[in-house]
Amino acid sequence: KRQRVRREFGKAGPAAVGLFVEKLSDRRELVRASAFELLTTLVDRAFFFDPAAALHQREVMTRPILKWWERDGPRLRWDERREKFVR
């Protein structure tokens, strides 16, 4: 099942990653945690983000992620073998 889901993300293209980046600012902690887990699973990058942190702390933690997304997001491509988005 997980492999099928990953393929669907690959078909959706980098826009799928953008959805998870946006959800990092969701008001619900569970949504933020899930989005961060999927984001780090699907891209070849390590980020620091604490979904349980206070709003102002999360805003600071998301800045580097947003900068990365703006810079590299459009250039991401799906690596079928690794089942990840890579640059």
Mean pLDDT: 91
Q: Uncertain spans, ≥5 residues at pLDDT below 50?
A: none
* Count of DSSP-assigned helices: 4
Q: Span between N and C termini?
A: 26 Å
Which series of helices and strands comes N to C? HHHHEE
Strand neighbour order, sheet with most strands: 1-2
Class by SSE composition: mainly alpha
How big a fraction of the residues is strand? 5-15%
CA-based gyration radius: 13 Å
For the largest beta-sheet, the strand count, sense and barrel status come to: 2 strands, antiparallel
The amount of helix comes to: 55-70%
| Quantity of strands, as a count | 2
Outline: globular
Description:
The model has no long low-confidence stretch (mean pLDDT 91). This protein has 4 helices and 2 strands, in the order ααααββ. It has a two-stranded antiparallel sheet with strand order 1-2. A hairpin with a 4-residue loop joins β1 and β2. α2 packs antiparallel against α3. The protein is mainly alpha-helical.
A few lines on this structure:
With 87 residues, this protein is mostly helical.
What descriptors fit this protein?
globular; two-stranded antiparallel sheet; about 90 residues
Write the layout of secondary structure elements.
Blueprint: H1 2-12, H2 15-23, H3 29-42, H4 55-72, E1 77-79, E2 84-86
Antiparallel strand pairs: 1-2
